[in-house]
Specification:
With 399 residues, this protein is mainly beta. It contains five helices and 21 strands. Helix content is 9%, strand content 41%. The strands form three sheets. Strands 2, 3, 4, 5, 6, 7, 8, 9, 10, 11 and 12 form an eleven-stranded antiparallel β-sheet that branches. An eight-stranded antiparallel beta barrel has the order 1-14-19-16-17-18-15-21. The radius of gyration is 28 Å and the shape is elongated. The two termini are 28 Å apart.
Length: 399
């Protein structure tokens, strides 16, 4: 009856709060994981350009692709070809990485060998070209004050249009014969000033904004008629990009050579993916307990936070996998969100399944950038011997 002194506490006296406790699982056994050069054939995004990254080194990228004929037994001309007015290459630029304000020169060359549907193209593949630049000098610049996703047009030499429109009927019988006769293009971009800190641009090959257009005129029944033919990139096409990292003595090189550095800081980067493998110790403390929440926290390395900028942004998210380096949805424990200088994962469901025996306790957990092959961003995290190491905090109900 003493609770009557404070009527607001009557409920607490009759139904006292459930006793709870908090446990912390520590991270241990941290290792860096360096994947081999990734496959890029028919990847959803491709890279062109050059960029300088203080943590990774200098990137250089190029993109090879063929184009679809758009049918079988195609005839470009109904009459006589009077002339090719222009050839336009449109590229859908989805994003950039690096200093896009540095002027760059687009270079387009003809491939000499058809691309194969069976070859495993990696970022280290070399493509054979004729070495002749098809871009018009006054129409070959990549230069932006702000990069807005969309299609950007570049003028090419009309000789390419003449060569395509003059193909024999046998080359136009189907997609395969056309791509054998016209293997495609290899596209790169380099700064006007060598070794300038420029940018790499992300291209969306399957966008309708990526297309090769030929504008020409022909005589039909004595009349001059302007015509246009569009060559898109479809499922019948093959494309792949290169991505080469140059330079040494960057953080990526130091981490690759010094395993003791992993105890202080860890690197996650895309393009040529670098991830982190680790274990969680202390599972026995939370066995068979009903969980209120489980939150995994990985702080950033305090000494590198100032290295991010709008040109070299911090990634939007990190993904956590259990017991595999593959991007398998069933193995994903979740995507981390940034808050301040740390990344947070809400892992209540996954951890509860482990404590109840419904999911195997992971031997290893892996951290990667989200979309690790198609982004050049990087993140540097604090490691186990940092002043603010990563941890998993679990709130549970006492039995």
């Amino acid at each position: 009856m003493s609770a009557c002194r404070n009527p607001q506490r009557i409920g607490e006296e009759v139904f006292p709060p459930v006793p709870t406790r908090q446990d912390t699982l520590r991270v241990e056994g941290v290792e860096q994981v360096f994947l081999p050069p990734p496959l890029t054939r028919n990847s959803p995004f491709a890279f062109i350009g050059e960029a300088e990254d203080t943590f990774i080194g200098r990137w250089s990228a190029g993109w090879a692709t063929n184009f679809a004929l758009g049918g079988a037994n195609v005839r470009f001309l109904s009459g006589d070809l009077l002339g090719v007015d222009s050839v336009v290459l449109e590229l859908f630029i989805a994003s950039s990485y690096g200093d896009f304000s540095v002027p760059m020169r687009l270079r387009v060359e003809r491939l000499l060998q058809p691309l194969s549907t069976t070859q495993s193209y990696t970022t280290e593949t070399t493509f054979l070209t004729d070495g002749q630049n098809l871009t018009i000098p006054s129409r070959d610049s990549l230069y932006f004050t702000a990069v807005i996703p969309g299609a950007y047009r570049f003028r090419l030499d009309t000789s390419l249009g003449h060569a395509i429109l003059s193909l024999p009927p046998s080359a136009l019988a189907n997609e395969r014969s056309f791509q054998q006769a016209f293997p495609g293009l290899y596209i790169t971009a380099t700064p006007f000033t060598p070794q300038a800190k420029s940018a790499i641009y992300t291209i969306s090959p399957r966008s309708t904004g990526t297309v090769l257009r030929v504008y020409y005129r022909e005589r039909i029944q004595g009349q001059e008629a302007p015509q246009r033919y569009d060559f898109f990139i479809t499922d019948s096409c093959v494309w792949a990009h290169t991505l080469v990292r140059q330079g040494t003595n960057t953080l990526r090189d130091e981490i690759a050579q010094d395993s003791n550095l992993w105890r202080q800081k860890v690197l996650l980067s895309g393009g040529l993916p670098v991830g982190v493998r680790f274990r969680l110790a202390g599972w026995e403390k939370i066995a068979r307990r009903p969980l209120l929440f489980a939150r995994f926290v990985w702080p950033s390395d305090s000494g590198t936070a100032q290295q991010y900028s709008p040109l070299y942004p911090r990634p939007n998210s990190l993904v956590l996998y259990a017991d595999t380096i593959e991007e398998v949805a069933a193995a994903a424990w979740g995507f981390g969100d940034f808050s301040g200088n740390s990344v947070f994962w809400e892992l209540t469901q996954s951890v509860q399944e482990v404590t109840l025996g419904r999911r195997n306790r992971p031997t290893y957990l892996y951290l990667w950038l989200t979309g690790r092959t198609y982004t050049l961003q990087r993140w540097i995290g604090a490691s186990t011997h940092s002043s603010n190491p990563p941890y998993l905090i679990v709130a549970s109900v006492e039995p």
